[in-house]
Amino acid sequence: MKAGAIILAGGKSSRMGKNKALLPIDGVSNIERIVKSLAGIFAEIIIVANDEEAFEFLNLPIVKDKVKEKGPLAGIQAGLLAAKHETNLFIACDMPFISPQIAKQLVEQSEGFDAVVPVIDGKQHPLFAVYKKSLLPTLEDCLLTNQLRMKHLIERVNVNYRTEEHLLNKEIAKLDQVFYNMNHPSEYEEAKNLIGK
């Protein structure tokens, strides 16, 4: 597939109290689960992380935010600048049940758009989404003007929104689980309980 995958692991995990990317799920760190899910589809996988040492064990390229304390937009900027491909899937490091099938679908549905963002139960998921290098000027303007929420970027570019009816298929029975993310210790415990269910 002529696209890259970029894992955002630069957050502070302040609500969790521990590095979310490294929390074990069924004996494997969350970020390793994500890498294994994506490895068969994407030739290039990049980690965006400000703590490079924590992720050296993955043997993948690691890039740091170019601008500090600017949240996920800074991570997306760093990833796009480092990527070899125009089209890139971005995934937050706290999503243990991502679907390689959906990752592939999102990339395939990006033709003619700057971004592809899933909308599940009416909620946008901009951190399991596709972004192209074409939106870098707009993204960098958002950073310069401190418009740091994901919606500030998404509202200004050409987005293909994909709902349940576009994404659901026979291979994916639990779409809400695919987009599950962990911010608090209780959500981590729930994620461990969801394994195998």
UniProtKB/TrEMBL annotation:
This is Probable molybdenum cofactor guanylyltransferase. GO terms for molecular function: GTP binding; metal ion binding; molybdenum cofactor guanylyltransferase activity. It is an enzyme of class 2 (transferase). The N-terminal domain determines nucleotide recognition and specific binding, while the C-terminal domain determines the specific binding to the target protein. SUPFAM superfamilies: Nucleotide-diphospho-sugar transferases. GTP binds at residues 8-10, 20, 65, 94. Transfers a GMP moiety from GTP to Mo-molybdopterin (Mo-MPT) cofactor (Moco or molybdenum cofactor) to form Mo-molybdopterin guanine dinucleotide (Mo-MGD) cofactor. Its cofactor is Mg(2+). It catalyses: Mo-molybdopterin + GTP + H(+) = Mo-molybdopterin guanine dinucleotide + diphosphate. GO terms for cellular component: cytoplasm. Mg(2+) binds at residue 94. Keywords: Cytoplasm, GTP-binding, Magnesium, Metal-binding, Molybdenum cofactor biosynthesis, Nucleotide-binding, Nucleotidyltransferase, Transferase. It is found in: Cytoplasm.
